[in-house]
Specification:
The structure is a single chain. The protein is of the alpha+beta class. Helices cover 25% and strands 26% of the residues. It has 6 helices and 12 strands. It has helices at residues 30-45, 76-81, 116-133, 197-201, 207-222, 237-241, and strands at 22-28, 52-58, 61-64, 85-88, 95-98, 102-108, 139-141, 144-149, 152-162, 165-173, 230-231, 259-261. Strands 1, 2, 6, 7, 8, 9, 10, 11 and 12 form a 9-stranded mixed sheet that branches. Strands 4-3-5 form a 3-stranded mixed sheet, with no helix packed on it.
Length: 262
């Protein structure tokens, strides 16, 4: 078992004081990852961890945020037939879908300057700049977090913030099966279409390249010092970080918390 030897947080809230561990969880199930995020965010809030960035793809899952409507799950029988799980989520927002071929990034960090609006903007900016490097021009929509290409959504954002530590994060459609979004009312918007890097560019990019570009842009936008990315199964993260696995609240949607975005 590798121990990453991370240093405790030093009270600096911009993540620049010590290198942030970056862990590639591969393709991971949603609900255990959500519980892991809750425990890691408690460790950051308590000062025993400077922060951590989780990079991953999820096994197929529909996640229902705090503002989700049950009717946004359009065909439960079809969901089961497709082998897609359904999970309640502690993040903000409504219904969305994760599946292999979608880059998910979970920065579990102290919110810089305790400015949530700026944090959301900067998380979007990381993905926007990544897309520019692939030749894709994406735009924002007022009142609708995420990024869009010609009106179709290519990236989503949903956060939970507790004690000014963020969890959850962003997802970028790279080369996933877009037909799975037909199972839901995506983001609470009937008629909203999802797109992907593959559909927009007609090219297939290796996920390792997309991960590397994401981390380069995150370091630039936030001024983070990042440790080299390390591949690690989700159930080995806490041991590698030296974080206790007991004593933290479960990731129950709606259980306290300071805020959720959107």
């Amino acid at each position: 078992m590798t121990n990453l030897q991370v240093q405790p947080a030093s009270g600096v809230d911009d993540g620049a004081a010590v290198p942030l561990p970056v862990l590639d969880l591969g393709i991971a199930p949603y609900e255990p990852t959500q519980m892991l995020m809750t425990r890691l965010s408690a460790a950051v809030a308590d000062g025993s961890l400077p922060g951590v960035i989780l990079i991953l793809e999820h096994t197929p899952v529909i996640t229902l945020g705090r503002r989700a409507d049950p009717t946004h799950l359009l065909d439960p029988a079809a969901v089961q037939q497709h082998g897609v799980a359904v999970a309640l989520s502690g993040r903000g927002g409504q219904a969305t879908l994760h599946a292999p071929g979608q880059l998910v990034s979970y920065p579990i960090v102290s919110v810089p300057r305790q400015d949530l609006r700026a944090f959301v903007h900067d998380l979007e900016e990381v993905v926007r700049l990544l897309l520019v490097r692939l030749g894709v021009t994406a735009h924002r929509r007022d009142g609708h977090p995420g990024l869009y290409v010609d009106g179709d959504k290519i990236a989503s954002i949903g956060l939970r913030c507790r004690r000014w530590v963020s969890s959850h994060g962003t997802s970028l459609n790279v080369a996933l099966d877009l037909s799975l979004f037909d199972l839901i009312v995506s983001c609470g918007e009937p008629g909203l279409r999802q797109t992907s890097v593959q559909r927009v560019t007609g090219r297939t990019y290796a996920m390792d390249l997309i991960k590397a570009l994401y981390l380069e842009e995150a370091a630039q936008v936030f001024g983070w010092r990042l440790s080299p990315m390390q591949a690690l199964p989700y159930d080995e993260v806490e041991a590698a970080l030296g974080v206790p696995t007991t004593g933290f609240e479960p990731a129950t949607p709606g259980s306290g918390g300071q805020c959720s975005i959107p």
